[in-house]
Amino acid sequence: MNSRNWVRLFMSTLAVGGISAGIIGFIVKWSEYKELFSSFEFMDIVLAFIWFVGVGLIFSVISQMGFFAYLTIHRFGLGIFRSVKLWNAVQIVLVVFVLFDLIYFRYKLFADEGDSIFSYIVVALIIALVGIVVALLKKQQTNKQAFVPAMFFMIVVTIIELIPAVQANDDSWLYLMLFPLLLCNMYQLLILPKLTNS
Question: Which of 33, 108, 122, 153 lies at a C-alpha separation of 20 to 30 Å from 163?
Answer without folding.
Answer: 33
